[in-house]
Structures are given as C-alpha cells and as structure tokens.
C-alpha cells in the first residue's frame, strides 16, 4: 500500500495544485468558482495528513450506517493520518465546496495537537460523515473563508497561530453539529443498540463465545456496517454507556443465568462466556454487581 509522508507528495498524487504552505493546503470554490478535482479513482493509500472536506453529492451510492441518506444538504468528511482511503468513479460530487489538508506536524507544540485526538469523528467512516443543515453550512463556510484568507496572505509570525485557532473553532462547531445529528437520528441509534445486542445474543447462542472468546467491538461494529468509534459514540449519546460497557452488561446478565446452575464452577461460567482468565471475570462481575460471582450465587439461593 502506498504511503505519503509529506503534504506535497500527497497533493501531487491527487493531481491537485501545490500548496502555498509546506504543511497546509486550502482549496475552496467560493461562491462562483469550482474546486480543483482530484484524480477519479485510487487503490488503497495512506498519508500523514488530516483532511477536512465539504462536498455535495451528485450521484452514486452512499449510505449512512445501514440507511440511505438524502444528500441534498452538504456533507462534511474528516480523515485522520494513517487512515486507509480508496475511491472509484461511482461516487460523484459537485465541484463546489472546500478541502483543507494539513500535515500532523503542523500541530506540533499546540493545544490542538492534543485536542484533535479527542474528536471521534476523525475515526468515522465515510458513511458516518456529518450532514450539515443550511444554517450549519453557512457557519462552517464563514470559518473556512477566514482560514483561506489567512492562508492566502503573506505568511508571518502570527499566521500559524491564527490558522490553528480557526481550525480549532471549526472542529468545535463540527463536534456540536455531530451531537445534533446523533439526536436527530435517535430512532437509528435505538436500532443500533438493538442490532448490537442481537449480534451478541447470536454469538452466545451459537457457542462462539466459548469457542472463540469475547468478540472485539471492532468486530461487532464491522458486522453492523459502522466504525468502532461511531458505534461507541452513538451508544454513549443515546444511552450514556459506551459499546464496551454494553458488551460487559450483556456478559454479566448471561453470567447471572449460568450461575444459577448449581454444579457449575465459577471458572466454568467464565470460560462459557469467553473469558480467558476466570479471575478477570470475577473482578468485572464484582465491579458491576458489588458482589463476587460466588456471593451472588449464594445470595440468590438464600432468596
């Protein structure tokens, strides 16, 4: 797989114009112009840059989670360094919008270098992009215009600080808008939790927990056609618990049922649920229930 270490190498590969700065590029169509178009297709590639781009859908198949989405509104995409990218000619976007690419080293020594890692949407996949309302689109465009203005100016000692400050503000707005998107898609969020639990139930009923161990969140998310980070963020927003917490709750609930089998040792219960180490199972059970598996069994028998 081809990897691009510098921004200039990456832009050259995309067949885009060189940037005004070795660490950051800003392409914008403005109100009347058109953005330069990158190459039509590419095999899997990676690079060391962050990308933020806004485009409007023309044709092709894109889905949001497991459902089709109305792409009449603009779509904001976020890509982190080392993420694998691949595209072909089937999806077509308008030549209007913007694209900001900046090398990860551009943030070195700044607060944003730490803050940007907390934004989960850089780990989302394309079908979990941010779909802006007209009002939100207007706010984002205003920020990009300010970034582009500073980018086009003659660089001085204040340029980097100003651009990074504006980038930070843009990402904060994006975070707010994603929260709105989670709320607006409450029905989908509930369905996602139901599907998550069904996958676990099927995994348990088929005996795979005992044979193959506890599935990873990434594995379950892949079966649900969403990214690991998006699954956790959506469930956290909807239920107050992350995907890992929901997985643990499922295991504890199943453990309670199995513990009622009088002749089964606690270690056997742990192995039935896919735990490699019974001691870890006992610690998790006590953390969640306030009593050990053995104490829980004795308490239940007394009742």
What does this entry look like structurally?
This is Helix-turn-helix protein. Keywords: DNA-binding, Transcription, Transcription regulation. One of its GO terms (molecular function) is DNA-binding transcription factor activity. InterPro entries: Homeodomain-like_sf, HTH_AraC, Tscrpt_reg_AraC-type_HTH. The protein is α+β, with helices and mostly antiparallel strands and 303 residues long. It folds into two domains: 183 residues, Jelly Rolls (Sandwich), CATH 2.60.120; 116 residues, Homeodomain-like (Arc Repressor Mutant, subunit A, Orthogonal Bundle). Helix content is 49%, strand content 17%. The chain has twelve helices and ten strands. Strands 2-9-4-7-10 form a five-stranded antiparallel sheet. Strands 1-3-8 form a three-stranded mixed sheet. Strands 5-6 form a two-stranded antiparallel ribbon. The termini are far apart. About 5% of the residues have low confidence.
């Amino acid at each position: 797989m081809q990897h691009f270490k510098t921004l200039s190498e990456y832009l050259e590969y995309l067949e885009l114009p060189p940037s005004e700065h070795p660490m950051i590029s800003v392409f914008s169509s403005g109100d009347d112009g058109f953005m330069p178009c990158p190459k039509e297709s590419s095999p899997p590639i990676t690079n060391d840059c962050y990308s933020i781009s806004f485009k409007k859908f023309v044709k092709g198949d894109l889905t949001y989670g497991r459902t089709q989405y109305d792409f009449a509104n603009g779509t904001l995409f976020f890509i982190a360094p080392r993420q694998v990218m691949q595209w072909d000619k089937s999806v077509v976007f308008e030549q209007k919008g913007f694209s900001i690419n900046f090398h990860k080293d551009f943030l070195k020594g700044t607060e944003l270098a730490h803050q940007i890692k907390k934004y989960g949407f850089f780990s989302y996949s394309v079908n979990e992009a941010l779909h802006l309302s007209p009002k939100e689109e207007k706010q984002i465009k205003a920020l990009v215009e300010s970034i582009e203005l500073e980018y086009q100016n003659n660089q001085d000692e204040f340029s980097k600080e100003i651009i990074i400050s504006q980038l930070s503000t843009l990402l904060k707005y994006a975070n707010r808008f994603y929260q709105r998107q989670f709320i607006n898609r409450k029905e989908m969020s509930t369905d996602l939790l139901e599907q998550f639990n069904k996958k676990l139930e099927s995994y348990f009923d088929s005996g795979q927990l005992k044979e193959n161990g506890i599935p990873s969140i990434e594995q379950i998310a892949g079966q649900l056609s969403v990214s690991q980070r998006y699954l956790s963020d959506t469930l956290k927003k909807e239920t107050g618990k992350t995907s890992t917490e929901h997985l643990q709750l499922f295991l504890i609930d199943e453990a309670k049922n199995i513990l009622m089998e009088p002749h089964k040792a606690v270690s056997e219960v742990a192995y039935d649920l896919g735990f490699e180490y019974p001691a870890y199972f006992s610690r998790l059970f006590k953390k969640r229930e306030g009593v050990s598996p053995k104490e829980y069994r004795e308490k239940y028998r007394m009742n």
